Amino acid sequence: MTDAPPVPQGDYVPATRHGDLITTAGMTPRQAGQLMFIGPARADAPVGDYREPVVLACRNALTATRALLAPGEAIAQVLSMTVYIATGPGFTAHSRLADFASAVLREELGERGRCARAAIGVASLPGDAPVEIQLVVAAGR
């Protein structure tokens, strides 16, 4: 994970803030603007093959969130996470892939990382990314 917020791939910002709420844009598994993984999740591939792209996308969402924290602030609670997964025919392990992102949030934030979540299969994602993650977070001291 880098300290710089992820580079937007279009006409948007990595995250917005209103009061104590921070909402991220959908984050794909990119480093320095470069998509590191491509292609849909396949039913015939081991679920573990998708851990790395999910973790990278989740860490990008956390980085975008932290970029909007004021000095002395922290993530008080992750309120919601949406995990979009580009899937091929027959793929049904959406929740198992989303569990990789949930584990990142728990590792970094403990109980503050436990949140409501949706895991959604889609036909495609920007740049042929396998996953896109969006967070809604409460900031606090």
TrEMBL record:
Pfam family, one: Ribonuc_L-PSP
Tree of life domain: Bacteria
TM region(s), chain numbering: none
InterPro entries: Endoribo_LPSP/chorism_mut-like, RutC-like_sf, YjgF/YER057c/UK114
SUPFAM superfamilies: YjgF-like
Protein name listed in UniProt: RidA family protein
